[in-house]
Amino acid sequence: MSPEFLGLVAAYILCSEAAALRQLTADETRQCLGLYQEIKLELVPGLTPEDFAALTPKDRAWVNREGYRAYREWRMANADMVAQSEQEARQLLALR
After folding, report:
1. Backbone angles phi, psi at 47, to 5 degrees
2. Domain definitions of the chain by residue range
3. Which of 25, 45, 82, 84 is deepest in the core (most CB within 10 A)?
4. DSSP secondary structure of 40-90
5. Rounded to an integer, what distance in angstroms lies between the CA atom of residue 4 and that of residue 39?
6. Is the pTM of this model over 0.85?
């Protein structure tokens, strides 16, 4: 995976860990949802955000499910990296 993708995942994990500790603000929630959407789209080959926006609601739902499935598979295949990122996020949040 690209460094950009790993950065998206790390930022999303930080959001997720923050949400486990406290209620996110509306802006934080939008940011986290945007990161999650970017991750899912990265995992659906050949699809840009512009392509996604032009899809029918039915096709967007399919892309969302496919991206979610691919992300879950990626997390399982990279469980050690994900666990380390989660631990680092918790440590960072504890410092705030």
Report:
1. -115, 125
2. 3-95
3. 82
4. HHHTSTT--HHHHHHS-HHHHHHHHHHHHHHHHHHHHHTHHHHHHHHHHHH
5. 10
6. yes
